[in-house]
Amino acid sequence: MQAKRVTRQRAQNQDENAGIASRATRASTKTVGKALVSTTTAGTKASQPLNRKRVALEDVSNFNKAGQDASLEKETKKAVKGVLTTKTGVTKSRSRTALKEKVVEEVKPVEVKQTVKAAAARPRKRSNSSARATQAENNNENEAPVEEEKKKTKKPEVAAAVEVKTKTKEVAVQKPTALEKEGEVFANEPNSKRTRVVEPQPAAIILESEEDDDPLMVAEYAEEIDAYLRDLEPKSMANPEYMDHQDELQWKMRGILVDWLIEVHTRFRLLPETLYLTVNIIDRFLGLKQVGLDKLQLVGVAAMWVAAKYEEVYSPSIKNFIYVSDGGYVEDELLRAERYILTTLDYDLSYPNPMNFLRRISKADDYDIRTRTFAKYLMEVSLLDYRFLEYPGSLVAAAAMYMARKMYNRGSWNASLVHYSGYTEDEIMPVFKLMVDYLARPVKHEAFFMKYADKKFKKASIKVRSWAKSAAVHYKVDLNEPVDL
């Protein structure tokens, strides 16, 4: 039995070493042969009975040959290593512990720079990969110092960029001063992106450089259009003292009518030009004809209906105007009033309103949305206060822009603004003080005040009122003078 077992073990050992021996060279076969001879000699000496069971089915070796098996494994490993080195030409230089140390060193954040410098200083050894991989690593070694230098050079540039960004943020956060040099106070609002305190370029340069290529701006005709509108202003202005010829009317009644028309205008969502033309038609008609108190509202409704037809794309119908008048008039009365007004004015509705001039002045102000919104509110003051009738619309627009810029500390009234508005600071000052006088007094026209107290108009009526009270003291405006508003 023992002889059969020995022969079976020899066959199994030969099967296990068959794969290795077939791949080995002539030099390696000698060492493997010696190992096999040692196993056969050890197998003949094994005559003792088995003392324990096999650990696994795959394990068919004898338990008494522990030392011989260990030496055999070592020799076979050496033989396989010799075969691999002769075929590939690569030798394993570093142990696993060294690799672990290298990985640990690379993970440490403090010693990263030192390891990179050391790697750049010493030549890299061959790895277990192919020769091409080693060549690529050598190329990377040559490029490593260059990349380090680039990183070093980029760091100050990045720091400078961060400093520039922080400076720009600090500049953007800055708010306008609460007190001007002249002593005005205004609302604490942040500067918008388009706000510029820097003095703009001369007017002619701005027009030619930015608007010459835009066909919608008709820059080549801008000067002629502006001159034509200024020629029309004196012809379309109403008599500033026409109330002296009205027996039943007073300036206060006119203010109440215009305040109500502003409310109707807001409800119908009409254009600003429609409102200005409505008030102009009323003043011109009342300057030519005497009207009773019971027909004053009819004149106002008919004037707005005519203006809406002239300015709007889709004007409200006659039924809408009868409805807002609370049924006080019928369609026939409104139609007859329309014909009578147009005949009296000789169908002349060419009125250059302040909005036409404000759009041109806004060009010199860089189209700032805040100053333009407040200027619209200030211009509508001229509709309610009869004292503005003696001033043309272009001067009212210039004064409104002047005051809005004062509120937001937008700089002085420079040469560019003088060119676009057509007025100097001295010519604007009387209208400016008149606006301050109206705004600093108690509120008399609630519909007008509530319209611009909305968030849509940046609560202009509330903010301007708080500023006008301090401005009235500074500019020595007499608020005790009686005014029939």
UniProtKB/TrEMBL annotation:
Cyclin C-terminal domain span: 352-466
The keyword Cell cycle is assigned to this record: yes
BP terms from Gene Ontology: cell division; mitotic cell cycle phase transition
Residue stretches of biased makeup (Low complexity): 81-92, 131-143
A GO term, aspect molecular function: cyclin-dependent protein serine/threonine kinase regulator activity
Segments for region (Disordered): 1-33, 62-100, 115-159
The keyword Membrane is assigned to this record: no
CDD domains: CYCLIN_CLBs_yeast_rpt1, CYCLIN_CLBs_yeast_rpt2
Bias (Basic and acidic residues): 147-157
Keywords, alphabetical: Cell cycle, Cell division, Cyclin
Pfam families for the chain: Cyclin_C, Cyclin_N
Domain Cyclin-like span(s) in chain numbering: 259-343, 356-437
SUPFAM superfamilies recorded: Cyclin-like (SSF47954)
Stored InterPro entries: Cyclin, Cyclin-like_dom, Cyclin-like_sf, Cyclin_A/B-like, Cyclin_C-dom, Cyclin_N, Cyclins_cyclin-box
Family (UniProt): Belongs to the cyclin family.
Protein name as it appears in the record: G2/mitotic-specific cyclin
Organism listed in the record: Orbilia javanica
